[in-house]
Design goal:
single chain; mainly alpha; 64% helix
Length: 281
């Protein structure tokens, strides 16, 4: 049997030439560095937390300034109804210290709310929305807080100055010589009538403050931030201003258990501006 020599080099060269002419180029896939990342969702719970923290810090500062103890031991050992936030005015003990909310206190808590909301927006939302949140912070403080508070506070001082003269022309029902039921009905009716002037002044001042605040917000957006945003006001737009209404009652009404209870809702409602800032985009 004869053995034929195999030309290995010749065969390999021919096969390699065939491979080069028939094979297709291999496509390589590279990871794109410009791939758009999914937008980060804003954590509403986180914004609420920082807003409440901001309002709570401001509230603690106000309570301390008005003479209430912030010592945890004293707070725990006292009744909840005697805590600064929950203590209600009692006409039987008018000398008892009660937490009061006037313009400086309201502005302080609103500032804490907006600062807390802005911090929450920075921590729990995409950073590209921070500038819009900063613009909203200015709009909220000026348009929704400072201007309405200034209008209502000014109206409150004017009313206090002329209160005696205003109430002197308010008609009252005479109930002498009638039965006890009619006397009671007339007594409460007279009280209700006396509430009408301050309530009317409060409503007018609050409405004027909200309208003026809306105009200022539009001006700031257009002239300062160079962004035309027309904020139109409808009847439903007054709903978020419950905090302004509570504040107005606390400023205009005489000290009473009812006005004291209503004023205790102000810190909660003043969380609204902070949440609006923190979640704004």
């Amino acid at each position: 049997m004869s053995v034929h020599a195999i030309n290995v080099n010749h065969n390999l060269t021919r096969k390699f030439a065939e491979f080069k002419t028939t094979s297709q180029p291999i496509t390589t896939f590279k990871h794109s560095t410009n791939e758009t990342k999914p937008e980060r969702k804003c954590s509403t719970a986180g914004v609420y937390l920082t807003t409440i923290l901001g309002v709570g810090t401001a509230l603690a500062f106000i309570a301390k300034k008005q003479g209430f103890s912030l010592n945890p031991k004293n707070i725990i050992n006292s009744k909840i109804k005697d805590w600064a936030l929950f203590k209600i005015y009692n006409k039987k003990h008018p000398e008892a210290k009660v937490l009061e909310f006037e313009e400086p206190e309201i502005l302080t808590m609103a500032g804490g709310s907006v600062a807390g909301g802005l911090l929450g927006g920075a921590l729990f939302d995409d950073k590209k929305h921070f500038k819009s949140k900063a613009r909203e912070a200015v709009n909220q403080m000026l348009g929704n807080v400072i201007i309405p508070v200034a209008f209502v506070g000014g109206a409150s001082r004017i009313y206090d100055k002329y209160k005696t003269k205003i109430l002197s022309v308010v008609p009252q029902i005479k109930y002498s010589g009638v039965n006890s039921f009619m006397q009671t009905a007339a007594k409460y009716t007279n009280k209700f009538i006396k509430v009408i002037p301050p309530s009317g002044i409060t409503a007018v001042a609050l409405g004027a403050g909200i309208l003026s605040g809306n105009r200022v917000s539009n001006f700031i957006n257009e002239k300062v931030f160079h962004k035309k945003v027309e904020r139109k006001i409808h009847g439903s737009d007054f709903a978020p201003h419950v905090d302004d209404l509570s504040m107005a009652i606390s400023l205009m009404a005489d000290k009473s258990a009812i006005s004291s209870v209503i004023s205790r809702t102000i810190p909660a409602f003043l969380c609204v501006p902070g949440v609006e800032v923190g979640t704004h985009r």
